[in-house]
Amino acid sequence: MQDQYALLVLTTGPDNDTAVSIADALVQEGLAACVQISAPVQSVYRWQGKVCIETEVQLFIKCHTSCYDALQQRLLSLHPYELPEIIALKLDRGLPGYLDWIKETTHP
Known about the structure:
Elements: E1 6-13, H1 16-28, E2 34-37, E3 41-47, E4 50-64, H2 68-78, E5 87-91, H3 96-105
Antiparallel strand pairs: 1-4, 1-5, 2-4, 3-4
């Protein structure tokens, strides 16, 4: 059985409207307890042999491992990028009540 813990999932989007749309869907559907959207950030990356410099917004998605697979699939369906950044970080420390809230609020 997979360990059960909270996750911080990171992704970027091309603009605030897209980020809000993604965040709203994930929270409304119970796949994320909370999504924070950052101010614009500069991303420098290599894609298809070229160095790209783009303005993006960062999404910080809090979910529970029990719904990660469904969250990833839904994020892929909502995301406009061909290959979106989706990185999940295990949250093994934090305010216990907050971590419990993430678990109680999200469901697959």
